[in-house]
Amino acid sequence: MSTFNPTHLAGLTPREAVADVVYRATASFDQADADLLDSAMMEDAVLTIGDRQHFPDRAAIRADCWGPVSKLDTVHMASNVRVRFHSDADANDRNTANEADANMATVTANFQANHYRAGEGMRPDAVGFTTGGMYELQCVRQDGDEAGLWKASSWVVHLTWILGDPSVMTSGEDADKEKK
């Protein structure tokens, strides 16, 4: 478990606890903290980025997305975070909420994600790749060992714009190949 960024924070309100899923997930990439990723994503969580990248579970997310990106110099920023509990009758098309709805929520956030090749983030002339758009996460509250911890069952990254050189994103994969 990360000592810099613990996976569980005490004293969060229910809305803050759901919003924390976004913060844990994005911080996991920036800090290369696998524990934070695992704390934010269900094992069967699905991640979809734009219309081209789809990761069917946490193992694939970790191997094919988080692994390469966590090796880069990155900063993922989220703002305008909004949480809707599925039990909020006025937020649904129906006026009845069941017990399962109380353990489900949707969180959305605007984002900007800055990516640079490893070790180049502080260079003024470095080539980067920046994306922006909206995150949409379906979240569930955990039972058992992680009782009360909210995790994402799905994460959709709606890309609105890109800026820079997309080949920066594959430089983390290149670093893995060089080690082998």
Automatic annotation (TrEMBL):
<feature type="domain" description="SnoaL-like">
    <location>
        <begin position="12"/>
        <end position="155"/>
    </location>
</feature>
<dbReference type="InterPro" id="IPR037401">
    <property type="entry name" value="SnoaL-like"/>
</dbReference>
<dbReference type="InterPro" id="IPR032710">
    <property type="entry name" value="NTF2-like_dom_sf"/>
</dbReference>
<protein>
    <recommendedName>
        <fullName>SnoaL-like domain-containing protein</fullName>
    </recommendedName>
</protein>
<dbReference type="Pfam" id="PF13577">
    <property type="entry name" value="SnoaL_4"/>
</dbReference>
